[in-house]
Amino acid sequence: MPAVAVIILQKAERISALLEERVGVKAGTSLEAGLRHASRHLPYDARAAGRRLAAAGQLARRSAGIVDVDAHRFDDDYRVLLRHLQAIEPGRVRPPGPSVWRFVTGVATAVASVVVLGVGLAYAGLI
To answer: Nearest 5°: phi and psi at 28?
Structure first.
């Protein structure tokens, strides 16, 4: 395996480790799966960089396609993704709660908003 392929695989493993550490995503067998699960915690440019990084990792595993990887683009993508993942504090990202709980809190917020609006309009003498 060429040295460039080893470096690419090491960087991909580093990103997988950061996904697990910072976002709490169990990457499982592939970086692609981890990035899919963490996509809502990353901005668009980091998601795009992650997709390109995962594709380069797949090429590095095959080792024959390593010629197709642009080293400068790969390093830029790695830095973008690394910067965004390191900015996330460990434990800050919580797994989503049950969807029923989100629905109930959304309805409660809407009802409270309508009540506050009604009280404000009544106080102003508009209703």
So the answer is: 70, -125
Tell me if the pTM is above 0.85.
no
**pLDDT (tens digit, 9 = 90+) per residue, 9-43?**
899 889 988 888 888 877 566 788 888 888 888 88
Phi, psi for 42 (deg, rounded to 5): -120, 145
Packed helices 31-38 and 3-18: angle between N→C axes, nearest 10 degrees: 30
pLDDT tens readout for residues 36-62: 888 888 889 999 999 999 888 888 887
DSSP 19: I
> What does the block give as tokens for 7?
């470096």
Largest CA distance in the chain: 78
Structure tokens at 29: 């067998």
Look up residue 102 and give its two tokens: 């989100």
- Is residue 125 classed as helix, strand or coil in its secondary structure? coil
Q: Give the side-chain half-sphere CA count within 13 A for 85.
A: 27
Residue 90 CA to residue 95 CA, distance in Å, equals 13
